[in-house]
Design a protein that fits this description.
This protein has one domain: 3-Layer(aba) Sandwich (Glutaredoxin). With 83 residues, it is α+β, with helices and mostly antiparallel strands. Bound molecules: FE2/S2 (inorganic) cluster. FE2/S2 (inorganic) cluster binds next to helix 1.
C-alpha cells in the first residue's frame, strides 16, 4: 500500500474496444500537467467482469463504469479535493 490515490483502469479487451485508451491517455496527461506523480498511482488491471459497463475505473475501493476522459478527471479531482 502507499499513500497515493490508487487508480486502476481496466485494460481488458472489452474495455479496450470501449476506448479505455482515451481514458488512460487523459489521466496520464492530467497527472503530468498538474505534477501529480507523487499523489496518484495509475495502473492497469485485468477484466473485472463488468465488460458491458466499460470502460471501468476503480479509485481506491470504489468502482466506476462507462468512464469517459472528462468523467475520469472529474472523479479523480473529487478525491484529490477530499485529501
Ligand atoms: S474488459 Fe473491462 S471489465 Fe471486462
Amino acid at each position: 500500500m502507499n499513500d497515493k490515490l490508487n487508480i486502476t483502469i481496466c485494460l481488458g479487451s472489452s474495455c479496450f474496444s470501449r476506448k479505455n485508451r482515451d481514458v488512460v491517455t487523459a489521466l496520464q496527461d492530467y497527472i503530468a500537467q498538474n505534477k501529480l506523480e507523487n499523489d496518484i498511482y495509475l495502473k492497469g488491471g485485468h477484466c473485472f467482469g463488468k465488460c458491458s459497463l466499460g470502460p471501468i475505473m476503480i479509485v481506491e475501493e470504489d468502482f466506476y463504469h462507462e468512464i469517459s476522459p472528462l468523467k475520469a478527471i472529474a472523479i479523480v479531482e473529487s478525491y484529490l479535493n477530499r485529501k
